[in-house]
């Protein structure tokens, strides 16, 4: 009776769901069929560890033996075991003398399955390259069970042989800490709790990476804190994940076994992903990065998904594990020329800028435009026919777009950096992402400084000023806007001067400096009228009406806001209409005409909700609550304030504390 299972590790943790699934497969086998399970996942995720741990736990259920073979599908030797070699080994283990083993593989298969017939044997086919390597090693007897592990998904085994797939996931944060504790003790991990959590995160929840770090810390008695800097550095991360005594404990080597099995075209796609600004990327983004048409790109990405080198989030969206992305970045630097890398990054930045501009033109069609860089090499970009489609794309791509601005600044694509930051400003504002608008603006400011482009610098300062006002940094906001105005006046850019004046007026409005705000808005209105900028005129009028209302000039407020509303309706500008309806509601509230105020507020609320404008939705809900309170409807007032508070908290806005205090009264 063969007992070929290698030792199981004593440092096994978590994986309760996976163990339960394997045990169910054993207890719920269908009559007349052998049970076949595939355990698949990325390199280092613990496929073999899981298979062996479970196999040892149920060895007594297979009294006629356990067969095991490392098929070396992904191995330093680079030479996978052939099915015939594996069959000869299994047949010999089942008691047949080597000189009695048939030479022809068909006869080997027949003898192997005959030997297993009626016996209770567990067969572990570890580290398989593909289904073809496994198919002939499967037992035919329903009394047997086979488990195959592979970095590939083994889809043909599932489709043709009825195998049940078990796709392994990364560890959870707590499970990662438990694995570290297997090397360092629970007391030590608890003592270094903060550092341990950071290590788990920087290791990407990958068991092999955590095992290497845990072993290094245990061997050298290093505090976990001392390993964090190397793990945080993309340049040093792979070096930190190497025990330097075996390729199996060198994360880069382990990944390389998957990479070198790729054909040239998918290998190129994989390493180019090391140039992407973030872990997630769309199909169209990869197409731009690689310069390949969408259908061909999809086919190549399918190869990488099958190899578990990337994961497919949706049919057109992919994610690369952080450690694999670091490995890909090393490969692209080694295998692609500087020119090739620069061209790939330019294609990607061209794509993101042109796609973001297409979305921005839908969500803010009347915005004064900038002259974008000419786009080269973009084979396809998204098309948006509705506001919802445009905002949906921006939300999906949000983190990648933010990271791409920083990426562009780091890699010398300065014009792309500032133009993308400017293009995204309205989206950031509508969705309440003030801190993203602020941080990307500050990064883009470095880019405009290097370019020496005074107008671009002024536009970015205007955006930064507006964002600083949104987060309550009024002095800094005023400073940025005054610098922008000085530059715009010097170069004679009157339309953008008008927009900067409106932004400065909003800063003053937030500080109850309505007299100063009014003067800037009157100047802005004059400039926009001079240049026949109807959208600019509408925004100046709306803010002017807001100032009139706060200065007690209610007839002027109503007159000015009605003029703004007419312009916004003519322009089909929903956001502008909502702003103006809000201002009209406020004016009627000051006149103690609260029913009319509520009507205007609720119209504004409907528009902002339709657009997904979270900050302004919360802002007008606050005033709706105020009007209900003035009418004596306290329950309705509290409900509106609670809704507003929820959104302000979600957006981390300082307004939340003021509203919380009001609700506490």
From TrEMBL:
Annotated TPR repeat ranges: 578-611
InterPro entries for this protein: NB-ARC, P-loop_NTPase, TPR-like_helical_dom_sf, TPR_rpt
Naturally occurring in which organism (per UniProt): Nonomuraea bangladeshensis
UniProtKB keywords: TPR repeat
Pfam families named among the record's database cross-references: NB-ARC (PF00931), TPR_10 (PF13374), TPR_12 (PF13424)
PROSITE patterns documented for this protein: TPR (PS50005)
Protein name, UniProt field: Tetratricopeptide repeat protein
Every NB-ARC domain range: 18-183
């Amino acid at each position: 009776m063969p007992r070929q299972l290698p030792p199981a590790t004593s440092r096994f943790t978590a994986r309760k769901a996976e163990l339960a699934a394997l045990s169910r497969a054993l207890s719920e086998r269908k009559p007349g069929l052998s049970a076949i399970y595939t355990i698949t996942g990325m390199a280092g995720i613990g496929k073999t560890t899981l298979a062996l741990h479970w196999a040892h736990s149920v060895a007594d259920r297979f009294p006629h033996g356990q067969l095991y073979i490392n098929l070396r599908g992904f191995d330093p030797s680079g030479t996978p075991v052939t099915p015939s070699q594996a069959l000869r080994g299994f047949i010999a283990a089942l008691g047949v003398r080597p000189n009695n083993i048939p030479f022809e593989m068909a006869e080997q298969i027949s003898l192997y399955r005959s030997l297993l017939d009626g016996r209770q044997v567990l067969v572990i086919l570890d580290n398989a390259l593909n289904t073809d390597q496994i198919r002939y090693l499967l037992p035919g007897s329903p009394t047997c069970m086979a488990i195959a592990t592979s970095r590939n998904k083994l889809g043909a085994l599932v489709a043709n042989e009825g195998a049940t797939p078990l796709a392994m996931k990364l560890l959870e944060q707590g499970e990662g800490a438990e694995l570290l504790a297997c090397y360092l003790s629970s007391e030590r991990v608890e003592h270094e709790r903060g550092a341990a959590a950071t290590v788990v995160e920087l290791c990407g929840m990958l068991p092999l990476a955590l095992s290497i770090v845990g072993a290094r810390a245990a061997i050298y008695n290093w505090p976990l804190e001392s390993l964090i800097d190397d793990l945080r550095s993309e340049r040093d991360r792979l070096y930190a994940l190497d025990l330097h005594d075996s390729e199996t404990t060198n994360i880069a080597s382990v990944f390389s076994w998957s990479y070198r099995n790729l054909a040239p075209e998918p290998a190129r796609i994989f390493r180019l992903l090391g140039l992407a600004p973030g872990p997630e990327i769309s199909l169209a983004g990869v197409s731009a990065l690689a310069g390949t048409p969408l259908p061909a790109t999809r086919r190549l990405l399918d190869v990488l998904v099958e190899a578990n080198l990337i994961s497919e989030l949706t049919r057109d969206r992919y994610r690369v594990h952080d450690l694999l992305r670091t490995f890909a970045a090393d490969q692209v630097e080694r295998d692609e020329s500087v020119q090739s890398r620069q061209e790939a990054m330019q294609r990607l930045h061209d794509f993101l800028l042109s796609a973001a501009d297409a979305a921005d033109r839908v969500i803010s069609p009347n915005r004064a435009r900038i002259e974008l860089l000419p786009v080269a090499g973009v084979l396809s970009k998204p098309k948006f026919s509705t506001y919802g489609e445009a905002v949906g794309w921006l939300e999906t791509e949000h983190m990648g777009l933010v990271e791409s601005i920083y990426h562009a600044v780091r890699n010398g694509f300065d014009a792309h950096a500032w133009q993308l930051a400017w293009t995204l400003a309205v989206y950031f504002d509508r969705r309440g992402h003030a801190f993203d608008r602020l941080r990307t603006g500050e990064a883009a400011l470095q880019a405009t400084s290097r370019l020496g482009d005074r107008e671009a610098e002024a536009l970015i300062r205007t955006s930064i000023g507006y964002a600083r006002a949104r987060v309550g940094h009024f002095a800094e906001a005023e400073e940025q806007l005054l610098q922008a105005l000085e530059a715009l006046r010097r170069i004679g850019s009157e339309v953008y001067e008008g927009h900067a004046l409106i932004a400065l007026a909003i800063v003053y409005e937030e500080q109850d400096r309505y007299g100063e705000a009014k003067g800037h808005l009157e100047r802005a209105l004059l400039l926009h009228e001079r240049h026949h900028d109807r959208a600019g005129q509408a925004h100046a009028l709306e803010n002017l009406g807001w100032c009139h209302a706060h200065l007690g000039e209610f007839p002027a407020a109503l007159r000015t806001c009605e003029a703004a509303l007419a312009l916004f309706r003519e322009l089909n500008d929903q956001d502008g209409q909502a702003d103006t309806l809000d201002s009209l509601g406020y004016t009627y509230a000051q006149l103690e005409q609260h029913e009319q105020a509520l009507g205007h507020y609720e119209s504004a609320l409907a528009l902002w909700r339709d657009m997904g404008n979270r900050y302004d939705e919360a802002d007008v809900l606050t005033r709706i609550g105020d009007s209900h309170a003035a009418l004596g409807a306290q329950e309705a007032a509290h409900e509106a304030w609670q809704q507003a508070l929820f959104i302000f908290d979600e957006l981390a806005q300082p307004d939340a504390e003021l509203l919380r205090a009001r609700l506490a009264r």
